[in-house]
Amino acid sequence: MKADSPVSYAFLMFGYIALNRLDEAKATYGRALERKLYSPFFLSSLYQIAFLQNDVAGMAQQIEKSAGHPAIEDTLLANEADTAAYSGRLRKSQEFSQQAIGSAERAGEKETAASYFAMSGVREALFGNGEEARRRAVLAMHRSAGVDVQYGSALALAYAGEDREAQSLTDALGRRLPEATIVQFNYLPTIRAKLAIRRGNTSAAIESLNKLERYGRQISTGGFVVKSGRH
Asked: What ranges in 69-146 are assigned the alpha helix state H?
């Protein structure tokens, strides 16, 4: 890790958070502060730590710090939408989603805004609002043809019970990006597993999810070559 690179510290924090090593994530942030380094990603990682520790004040603090900063404001608002939904506050989740969309649009991030719209459709479906989920998925696709948007829309449709539309989108995504790692080893298996469960085919769902697990093992051992051109 480069000692003078704030992004390196931020990514190391995300790694520790993924491993549930929160004290080490905090210590990494402390070292960055000692070196007077700053990255907007720090706010996102600190928000995640606060969420995992049920620290409402800590989450609010990161939201406040992100206000007016195009590089991170929309991400924190989207996180807040997820947090509200997680605690069963759908109306607040909808409000934060709309704020995240607006923030991304003001920053000129149209595809990001559309992806937030799609993922809000997933949440609506999880709350049993199938019609609203479908509406949001369709509107998201009208806003952008991006990969993340198509994935989020397909997932929303799958959870909303719109199997035919979800399957069509999934197949199209697979044909469009046959060598994109995140598509072939994350997005497609996730949607296909959900569709298999809806058909009552649990063995197919498990096999699809096993593909995700194998991908994760390959990533952790450094044995996988990333082919996706998205990043």
From this structure: 73-86, 90-106, 110-126, 130-143
Tell me the pLDDT tens digit for each residue of 178-230: 999 899 999 999 999 999 999 999 999 999 988 776 665 554 433 333 333 33
How many Å apart are CA 97 and CA 111, to the nearest integer? 14
Mean pLDDT value of segment 135-141: 96
Q: Which two tokens stand for residue 80?
A: 């807040």
What is the distance between the alpha carbons of residues 173 and 12, in angstroms, rounded to a whole number? 31
Give Cα 226 to chain centroid, integer Å. Answer: 19
| Dist CA 8 CA 41 (whole Å) | 10
Which of 200, 206, 192, 113 lies closest to 154, judged by CA?
192
Residues in Cβ contact with 219 at an 8 Å cutoff, skipping those fewer than 6 apart: none
Binned at pLDDT 50, 70 and 90, residue 4 comes out as confident
CA dist., res. 64 & res. 229, Å (int):
34
Task: Report the predicted TM-score, pTM, of the whole model to 2 decimal places.
Answer: 0.86
**Which amino acid, one-letter code, is at 120?**
S
Candidates 190, 180, 109; CA nearest to 157 is 190
